[in-house]
Design brief:
By secondary structure, this protein is mainly alpha-helical. Helices cover 49% and strands 7% of the residues. It contains eight helices and three strands; from the N terminus they run E-H-E-H-H-H-E-H-H-H-H. Strands 1-3-2 form a three-stranded parallel sheet, sandwiched between helices. The structure holds adenosine-5'-diphosphate (ADP), 3'-fluoro-3'-deoxythymidine monophosphate and magnesium ion. The site of adenosine-5'-diphosphate has 12 residues, from helix 1 and helix 8.
Length: 188
């Protein structure tokens, strides 16, 4: 068993695609099958940096765009040592958003004032409107061109159960595939 490491499984997608639902379900199912698995999410709002990000997202605080981008990145970096350690110990990490959201959301910020003015009641947090989310989606498609990463696309309009089964199968295959490979570097 020595040397077997966990897999890093990142769930990305636009708001309300079902990432958090599927993340919870996946970790539950993997644990029920006897695997070691932990659920993480980014932003992780409980740290000092995370609380700052959260107050920005709920619009209590305004922050300069570049500064907030770096806070999201710092929020990932502060978790890297514990993530690497868990992976090394054989714990699979299911991560609800990672650096791809970082790129997709920041790069969607060239939203025109006309589009911004059309914002509806999509949600209460920053970024929760359909024109912004459309830009985020296009940015995800662009990022998925990187074939060095093992991207799998899900049809988020399927039922929670069907998606769960698909995602669980992919997660199990991935855990097998990577178990004897050294940990790589992923940009953060
Ligand atoms: P995300 O984390 O991507 O923003 P959530 O998992 O929080 O999305 O899901 C958003 C909402 O949609 C929740 O009310 C959830 O119960 C519902 N939902 C999630 N997946 C599905 C699905 N496949 N079909 C229908 N509703 C879903
Ligand atoms: N978000 C998330 C970013 O803008 N940059 C990032 O690096 C990350 C990880 O934060 F609007 C955005 C994406 C979303 C918000 O919402 C977090 P959830 O509901 O906690 O995933
Ligand atoms: Mg969520």
């Amino acid at each position: 068993m020595a040397g077997r490491r966990g897999a890093l499984i990142v769930l990305e997608g636009v708001d309300r695609a079902g990432k958090s639902t599927q993340g919870r379900r996946l970790v539950e199912a993997l644990r029920a099958d006897g695997h070691c698995a932990d659920l993480l999410r980014f932003p992780e709002r409980t740290t000092e940096i995370g609380r700052l990000i959260s107050s920005y997202l709920v619009k209590e605080k305004n922050l300069e765009d570049h500064a907030v981008h770096l806070l999201f990145s710092a929020n990932r970096w502060e978790h890297v040592p514990s993530m690497r350690e868990k992976l090394r110990q054989g714990i699979t990490l299911v991560v609800d958003r990672y650096a791809f959201s970082g790129v997709a959301f920041t790069s969607a910020k060239d939203l025109s004032p006309e589009e911004a003015a059309e914002r509806g009641n999509f949600g209460n947090e920053r970024y929760e409107n359909s024109s912004f989310q459309e830009k985020v989606l296009q940015s995800f498609y662009h990022l998925m061109k990187d074939k060095t990463l093992n991207w799998k696309t899900m049809d988020a309009s399927k039922s929670i159960e069907d998606l769960h089964r698909e995602i669980k199968t992919i997660a199990e295959e991935t855990m097998q595939e990577v178990q004897n490979k050294p940990l790589g570097e992923l940009w953060k």
